[in-house]
Amino acid sequence: MNFQELGLFVKHTRKAQGIRQQQMADDLGLARATLSGFESGRVADIGLRKVLKMLEYLHYEVTPHAVSRLPTFESLLAERDDD
After folding, report:
1. Is CATH 1.10.260.40 the right assignment for the domain spanning 1-83?
2. In the record, which residues are listed under signal peptide (predicted)?
């Protein structure tokens, strides 16, 4: 998930919970323009703490996990040769 997708996630989750943008911004001590910019993908230079506060406010957390990578052509050939 990239920052733009994360912003959209926050937007959709906030709306699904019936929370107005201004209310969330006020509760978190953010400018509404900052929240709006993040949700729309216009503001990508936002601190991690702010993002974590937004997610916590919406009852979500960040859990690190390994990114799965597609195999390369060479690794597929090597795997085939091993069989």
Report:
1. yes
2. none
